[in-house]
Design brief:
The structure holds three protein chains of three kinds.
Chain A (H helix, E strand, L loop, with lengths): L8 E10 L6 E8 L2 H6 L7 E6 L3 E6 L9 E7 L3 H7 L6 E8 L5 H4 L3 E7 L4 H11 L10 E7 L8 H9 L4 E6 L9 E2 L2 H8 L6 E6 L2 H13 L7 E4 L15 E2 L2 E2 L6 E3 H6 L5
Parallel strand pairs in A: 7-8, 7-11, 8-9, 9-10, 11-12
Antiparallel strand pairs in A: 1-2, 1-6, 2-5, 3-4, 3-6, 12-15, 13-14
Helix pairs in contact in A: 6-7
Chain B lengths: L1 E3 H11 L4 E8 L2 E7 L24 E10 L2 E5 L7 E6 L1 H13 L8 H8 L1 E6 L25 E5 L3 E6 L2 H7 L10 H12 L11 H6 L6 H5 L8 H5 L6 E8 L2 E8 L20 H20 L9 H5 L6 H10 L6
Parallel strand pairs in B: 2-6, 6-7, 7-8
Antiparallel strand pairs in B: 1-9, 2-3, 4-5, 4-11, 8-9, 10-11
Chain C lengths: L1 H16 L5 E7 L6 E6 L29 E5 L1 H12 L8 E6 L7 H8 L2 E7 L2 E6 L3 E5 H4 L2 H4 L11 E3 L13 H7 L3 H14 L5 H5 L24 H14 L9 H5 L7 H15 L29
Parallel strand pairs in C: 1-3, 3-4, 4-8
Antiparallel strand pairs in C: 1-2, 5-6, 6-7
Helix pairs in contact in C: 7-9
Classes of the chains: A alpha/beta, B alpha/beta, C alpha/beta.
Chain lengths: 280, 338, 316
């Protein structure tokens, strides 16, 4: 039979790490079992994969690693249902299924020569990490202008990728701003919701693209700020979440208008979203 | 050219030795497509089947893979064994619907191997409709009761014989077994002409519906349309072009299989996210999705309306929500200017 | 019949004009011969759409919980019983409901017609007679021949709860609850029953028209949709289908009002009623209970009394 896009490859769960204080989000590191699998899994920041917890099912998760990090891929998963719970409970060394990479990706070509401001809230930061790491890689850094990251969570314990954040704070190639919702002991960075902080620290919109990922409410209030700062809809990108099953644009579940979020997305510009029905 | 039903039956029975033959069979409550071994089992003279023959290309329950867990390891297997099949007696609406499904199960990036393994290994023997039901409206949907689009071989029932037309190479290969073809008499030709020029009495106007729907997503038209809908999947499962499916696992201890099963956008939990958010939790949104998908989104993506006018949804709907009335309603709806 | 229609329309018109209700849920003429379809009338001018005859087969109580605001509902006997159960179960607020009661002789089951005439082209209903022109043949039927199975065993043709009654009352034919159809099934051998239900359940396509047409199936998450625990797989073999149907019947124990909406809704002619009827018989025999008769009452399985039969618990 021909290539079967419904069959996952098998990967080994090499690290299952609790990422947040409330223990709701774990980051899984999966290793490719052989070189051929890795060759066939060429991906770009913004893409996702369907992770299989055999016995429970499959669910789509954004890939948190960048293709510049060889041998492994990482996913950060919130415990919300059967599949995510099963993944959380997995012991290191367990074999899981992975189907991917799927979907479109952040327009890294279009971003070349431009400044980028990455705005993330909560655990929507996964593919934003992928993009930031990709751009910071020495092979690519010169392709892009200034990189600003504005990342916020309810409290410090809920921030993902604390190791990377610590590194970026010291890295002159990236301007990192972190924020939490309310003041907290031991926190000396900014305090405030993402829309407010964005208005305060966002770089000039001239020659700049914005990529925003987060809960619907955060996006809803951040967009007007970006528009006020002069970002046109063609230069604001986001990544959408949707209930998915096949991930191939066939089963009909994840559409917004004529577009399938799994295949025509999940990355969309605000200009593209304006053309689509408001149903997501 | 024509062949007597007697001779055709013999060729049919011979085919049954090498092919799985799916044909219309009489059952309590109507006609359905089932596997048969002999032409004598085939129902003649009926309107159309209760359920469309799509389940032979896209089964309601289909195994995608099986797995076995041993400790931390897992072995995953997939086997798809498909028999060479002949789908016999397929009406123009259902044959066209298969062409539409062909576009669903293949896109610019992926091709569904389960659907296409079955599709590539089946030959469609279509048949014209000699009688037309008042709930059929295929003539408005780009085909007609005698359209051979989508058939590999096309038959017209002349009573004690069939007029036979080869449409595709696949059909030609299957036809090689048919012998003793003869010319039609003048009367038979007249009958064929009548059947070929027949139209469905029920008509709808879909000439501008896609363009109209482009502007109607936020229209108040949808506010009352959905109220009597029960949100079941009766229309979805009886529709030859509906294709939505769910993927789930069936588990027994450490082994199991991943299966796909028919699903439908009418179901309230169809779009429910793991977070609890549901973009289409209102019935209004779901009915709008059905109409928009079939008459607008599918046209934008695939160039065709995803409805063939077979009328099964009209007959199976428990509350008589008639898609023809919805089409009329869309055509007559006033556009709200922003 | 005509004066009933006039009265229904006049009542609806008055209710809407006076602002007593926001919507009248009734029936209008369907698009197929011998079909009625539910309609939601919100303005007095539209009340002329409302009809009433033997084709009004949907149980409109199924729409009562989903419709916002104050609503008037046309209710036959069985429909009013469903409304009573919904009130008992706190799914409806009595003040938001205006029940337009109409007594009912029964509804026509079109499948009985189509079995003989093929698809119906034209039909007319006259007193006691239904004349049909079909794709296969034409035929004249008596109403009795076409009466839906649920209507044949109906003991509540008159609404049990209503705010206004339109038309006359109907005398109840049978005084005692009879379950001859259930006894017939019970008298079959195990093998015969098993074969029967296997055949019936193999027809089910799990469209859930039965569940959704039922006014008492209102759970936001039905047990079939639950995946933690996962009760049902997506399989549609007769075993899975029977699990669904039997599960639904058990969830309706002491609640089902035997309106037959489920059976009539089924596009595949599955004999859903057979299971519901058995359940009704058992509930009646064990608890002398018929559901939805009085608002002050309660579901059979919602109450307990010390002399409830315990044959299934205690060996006698």
């Amino acid at each position: 039979m021909e290539q079967n896009p419904y069959i996952p490859i098998t990967m080994k769960l090499v690290k299952n790490m609790c990422e947040t204080e409330d223990k709701l989000i774990n980051t899984f590191t999966l290793a490719f079992l052989n070189k051929e699998d890795e060759e066939n899994f060429k991906y770009m920041p913004g893409q996702f994969a369907e992770l299989s917890a055999y016995g429970q099912g499959e669910a789509p998760f954004g890939i948190a690693t960048s293709p510049t990090e060889p041998g492994i891929i990482k996913f950060s998963v919130a415990k919300v249902g059967c599949v995510s719970n099963a993944l959380h409970l997995m012991e290191e060394g367990t074999m899981v299924g992975v189907r991917g990479p799927m979907g479109n990706y952040y327009p890294m070509e279009e971003f070349k020569g431009k400044n980028i401001v990455i705005i993330g809230g909560g655990f929507a930061f996964t593919t934003l990490r992928s993009m930031a790491v990709y751009m910071l890689d020495e092979k690519h850094r010169a392709d892009y202008g200034d990189i600003t990251v504005i990342y916020g969570a309810r409290n410090p314990g809920l921030l993902l990728y604390k190791e990377e954040l610590a590194e970026w704070a010291e890295n002159p190639n990236i301007n990192l701003v972190t924020t939490i919702d309310k003041p907290c002991d031991g926190w000396c960075q900014r305090v405030g919701f993402i829309p407010t902080i964005t208005e305060q620290v966002a770089p000039s919109s001239v020659n700049t693209y914005a990529v925003v990922c987060g809960p619907p409410a955060m996006i809803k209030y951040t967009l007007p700020v970006l528009e006020k700062l002069g970002f046109p809809p063609e230069r604001i990108y986001t990544s959408l979440e949707m209930r998915m099953k096949c991930g191939l644009g066939i089963c009909g579940r994840c559409n917004i208008g004529p577009k399938y979020v799994c295949k025509d997305g999940p990355v969309f510009s605000m200009a593209q979203l304006k053309e689509l029905p408001n149903e997501y | 050219m024509k062949i007597s039903k007697e001779k055709f039956g013999q060729a049919f029975d011979a085919l049954a030795a090498d092919y799985q033959i799916i044909a219309p069979v009489s059952e309590a409550g109507g006609v359905n497509y089932l596997a048969v071994k002999s032409f004598s089992e085939v129902k003649q003279d009926y309107l159309n089947s209760k359920l469309p023959p799509k389940s032979f290309l896209f089964p309601q329950h289909e195994k995608l893979l099986t797995y076995k867990k041993e400790g931390k390891d897992v072995t995953v297997k997939t086997e798809l064994q498909v028999e060479k099949s002949v789908l016999f007696g397929i009406r123009p609406c259902d044959a066209k619907a298969m062409l539409l499904l062909d576009k669903v199960f293949k896109n610019d990036e992926y091709r569904d191997p389960y659907y296409y393994e079955r599709r590539d290994n089946s030959v469609v023997i279509g048949q014209a409709c000699n009688k037309i039901s008042p709930s059929c409206f295929c003539s408005s949907m780009g085909i007609s009761p005698a359209s051979s689009e989508g058939s590999d071989i096309f038959l017209i029932d002349l009573g004690d014989s069939y007029q036979v037309e080869v449409i595709t190479e696949k059909g030609k290969a299957l036809m090689a077994g048919l012998q003793e073809l003869s010319e039609l008499s003048a009367d038979e030709q007249a009958l064929v002409d009548t059947i070929k020029s027949a139209q469905t009495s029920s008509k709808v106007d879909v000439a501008t519906i896609t363009a109209k729907l482009d502007k109607m997503f936020d229209s108040p038209f949808w506010d009352s349309l959905h109220e009597k809908c029960l949100s079941c999947n009766a229309c979805t499962f009886s529709c030859p072009t509906c294709h939505c499916f769910d993927i789930s696992e069936e588990v027994h201890k450490n082994e199991g299989s991943r299966v796909r099963t028919w699903d439908g956008c009418m179901a309230p939990l169809f779009t429910l996210h793991g977070s609890g958010h549901n973009p289409r939790d209102k019935k209004k949104a779901r009915w709008r999705q059905r109409m928009m998908h079939k008459f607008n989104y599918f046209v934008h993506n695939n160039g065709d309306i995803a409805c063939v006018g077979c009328g099964r949804c009209i007959k199976s709907c428990p509350v008589n929500l008639d898609i023809r009335q919805v089409i009329d309603g869309v055509n007559n709806a006033e556009l709200v200017v922003d | 019949m005509n004066s009933i229609i006039e009265d229904i329309r006049a009542t609806a018109r008055q209710l809407l004009t006076d602002g007593k209700v926001d919507v009248v849920i009734g029936y209008e003429k369907g698009s197929l011969p011998l079909s009625a379809t539910p309609c939601f009338v919100r303005s007095p001018q539209d009340t002329d759409k409302l009809i009433w005859d033997e084709t009004c087969e949907n149980n409109l109580a199924a729409f009562s919980t989903l419709t916002q605001g104050k609503k008037a509902i046309i209710a036959k006997g069985c429909d009013s019983r469903a409304l009573v159960v919904l009130l008992q179960e706190n799914q409806l607020v009595r003040d938001d409901l205006y029940i337009i009661g109409v007594s009912c002789q029964g509804v026509i089951n079109k499948k009985k017609i189509e079995a003989e005439t093929g698809e119906i082209l034209e039909a007319s209903i006259n007193p006691g007679k239904i004349t049909v022109k079909g794709m296969e043949c034409d035929k004249e039927f008596t109403f009795a021949e076409l009466k839906d199975a649920s209507c044949q065993t109906c003991r509540y043709p008159n609404p049990v709860l209503e705010d206004i009654h339109i038309g006359g009352l109907i005398e109840v034919a049978q005084q005692a609850a009879v379950f001859a159809d259930v006894t017939e099934m019970e008298n079959k051998t195990d093998a015969e029953r098993q074969a029967y239900f296997k055949e019936q359940m193999s027809k089910c396509i799990r469209c859930y028209a039965c569940r959704n047409a039922c006014p008492l199936c209102y759970c936001k998450e039905c047990f079939v949709d639950c995946n933690s625990p996962k009760w049902l797989t997506g399989g549609v073999d007769s075993a899975e289908n029977l699990f669904f149907q039997a599960g639904r019947v058990l969830h309706l124990a002491g609640r089902c009002v035997e309106c037959g909406a489920c059976s009539r809704a089924c596009p595949q002619d599955v004999d859903i009623r057979a299971l519901n009827r058995k359940m009704s018989k058992d509930v009646f025999n064990m608890y002398h209970h018929e559901s939805g008769i009085s608002v002050e009452g309660s579901g059979a399985l919602n109450e307990y009394s010390a002399d409830d039969p315990e044959a299934f618990l205690v060996k006698e």
